[in-house]
Amino acid sequence: MKVSSLSSRKNADPVGIQELVHTKVSEPMPKIDCTKEIAEDIDYHMVSTVINSWDRKILNIPDWSRVVGDRFLRHIFRVDPKTIPIFGFPSETKWDDPSLSHDKNFIQKANKLIRAIDMAVVFLGPDLEPLKDELYRLGWQHTAMKALPSHWPIVGEALLSSLNDCMQGGFSDDERRGWVKIYNFMGFHMIRGLTAHYIEKGEAWRVDNSVKPPTKKVDKPVLAESIPIIAKEKEGNCPHRALICKQLRRSTPYQHMLQCNKRISAADVSFSVVSDVIASWQRIASTPNWEKTVGDLFLRYIFKIEPAAIELFGFPLDTDYTDPDLTANTKFLNKGVVLIKAIDAAVHLLGPDLYPLEEVLYDLGKRHVFMKAQPEFWPVVGEALFLVFEERLGDYFDEQIKDAWTIMYNFLGYHMIQGLVYQYNEIEKRR
């Protein structure tokens, strides 16, 4: 199937389902087998072949995530109709029903599926070792979806079929071989995590009836200790006293979620969390003039939630956060842009290995002393950010995306606050 034909369809059949129905799958795909570890069989040529085929043949398709995601989810339904109700659709739903392409729920789920593949490709490189732990953790989390090892061959076959449909000229032999090997590698380590979690939960029967639950539970990622307390202020007038006024602070639905006061290490942030955060942020950053418009909205929400922050940003306390004239205020606009660029920079630092980021965040937090920042301010900024997401992302900001950003924001905030607290205590020691 040619890419050119994918981009010139009539609105009635935006992703070419009628053509897919008639052509079906052009030839059998290689067998998917996620039961064996094959990392040693994957060489640099295979990895680069997969990356290049994705970048050149998939990402160049107009509206690629909708087109390929649609095919992907349809093929899952085709390969095993039992998956249809798992994705929240009536069991009688037909995989080749053209109306699915206009179903909001279907479009959203298909988009998430294919963007998860996109993130997996992004994380590929010459060294696959760091990816093993992330895949294990991602598989661990799939117990929440009642996933089974038997689902991986279904998804793998559907993925290969959808890529073969959408790639101009279909798969070459090298591409087919590379994708099968990479998928089997990823599936193997995800299934390891899935199996371990089911055993830990006493549900080994889901993966192997012969396996008995262990007597000792496997440790799960947990939130550790709270942040240290800043050195006590002297006579209540210490220059780094809290700037948050509890009488003025407005509550939001996210207040209890974004405290940033419990330790979250890089090990607690899964591959899927990083993937969801990056994908949702790309939506935010994809609109024209986004830094100014989103920065404006972001700063207004901060002022709305915490009026005391208005003075912190250098504006009179009686400034009305709803004032339309603020948009024309260069100072206001610049501060909003700086804020949103800081979030953008943090997102761009995300990757398969977050351990180096902990130190970067710690040092960044230390520098916030010069802005007289306080730990109490991080939840305010987080809540404002979530309100921005509500407004800009709409239905895409669902529970899964909220959960991902909750984990990520608390991770970022905790390590920055650690640096901030350390620096304030060092200042206190020198008094």
From TrEMBL:
<dbReference type="InterPro" id="IPR000971">
    <property type="entry name" value="Globin"/>
</dbReference>
<dbReference type="GO" id="GO:0046872">
    <property type="term" value="F:metal ion binding"/>
</dbReference>
<keyword id="KW-0479">Metal-binding</keyword>
<keyword id="KW-0349">Heme</keyword>
<dbReference type="GO" id="GO:0020037">
    <property type="term" value="F:heme binding"/>
</dbReference>
<keyword id="KW-0813">Transport</keyword>
<keyword id="KW-0561">Oxygen transport</keyword>
<dbReference type="Pfam" id="PF00042">
    <property type="entry name" value="Globin"/>
</dbReference>
<dbReference type="GO" id="GO:0005344">
    <property type="term" value="F:oxygen carrier activity"/>
</dbReference>
<comment type="similarity">
    <text>Belongs to the globin family.</text>
</comment>
<protein>
    <submittedName>
        <fullName>Globin-like protein</fullName>
    </submittedName>
</protein>
<dbReference type="InterPro" id="IPR044399">
    <property type="entry name" value="Mb-like_M"/>
</dbReference>
<feature type="domain" description="Globin">
    <location>
        <begin position="263"/>
        <end position="421"/>
    </location>
</feature>
<dbReference type="InterPro" id="IPR050532">
    <property type="entry name" value="Globin-like_OT"/>
</dbReference>
<keyword id="KW-0408">Iron</keyword>
